[in-house]
Amino acid sequence: MKGFDKIRLYGAGGHSQIIQAVSNQNGVTVTAVFDDNTSGSHPAFKNIISGARKNPDKFPHTGDPFIIAVGDNSHRVEISKFLKSEFATVIHKSAIIDPNVSIGKGTVIYAGAAVQPNTIIGEHVIINTLASVDHDNIIEDFVHVSPNATLCGLVHVGEGTHIGAGAVIIPKIKIGKWCTIGAGAVIIRDVPDYSVVVGNPGKVIKTKSLL
Ligand SMILES: CC(=O)SCCNC(=O)CCNC(=O)[C@H](O)C(C)(C)COP(=O)(O)OP(=O)(O)OC[C@H]1O[C@@H](n2cnc3c(N)ncnc32)[C@H](O)[C@@H]1OP(=O)(O)O
């Protein structure tokens, strides 16, 4: 995996603040922070380049690689379509990543997370603080695995799905694309695309309209 010593962030909210902190701890310099507007920005950021997508022709696509530093999965998709830039990966130095793990560009992995052998993680994925992703998982692009979530072995998570904080997914489960798994849910059966699932055992409470 290619290492970077400088990155740029697209997004200046709470999630971006964590990426800046992880970068600092890893000795990586954040050289610029962009956002569409500053209304939802975190006080940690002093110099935000706003209105970034209003002038696409003038946007500095070339330069230090980007992380799309936005927690909302569909928002990351939109921004990835705009940016014609190289993407970095940011992995906290305390994360335990088996060497036999594949990690896509733009993905971030936070403090204390563990990822076990033969797992494949896609692009622009968030593996949040203390998440446990065990062996032979497939995590597709734009997924967010929230803090303390546990994915047992051979789990497959479809594109854009959000696994809530502390959720547990038992082995061999397939979760569809653009699902939301509620905080603390225990998933013991496969989950169809676009489902919102809560509880133990997890039950579908609604199906989202197609994106
Ligand atoms: C660092 C970070 O912050 S990372 C971000 C981590 N974020 C999370 O983990 C949030 C995950 N989101 C949730 O758990 C949400 O509650 C959701 C998405 C599952 C549901 O949200 P909404 O669609 O707004 O549903 P709503 O709040 O209306 O609840 C619908 C019903 O499900 C129940 N419910 C909602 N969430 C849960 C949950 N996690 N577990 C059990 N029941 C739940 C509600 O009590 C309600 O039940 P009722 O109809 O009997 O009153």
TrEMBL record:
It comes from the Bacteria. Gene3D superfamilies: 3.40.50.20, Hexapeptide repeat proteins. It holds the Pfam family Hexapep. Residues 6-81 form the PglD N-terminal domain. Belongs to the transferase hexapeptide repeat family. This is Acetyltransferase. It comes from Aquimarina gracilis.
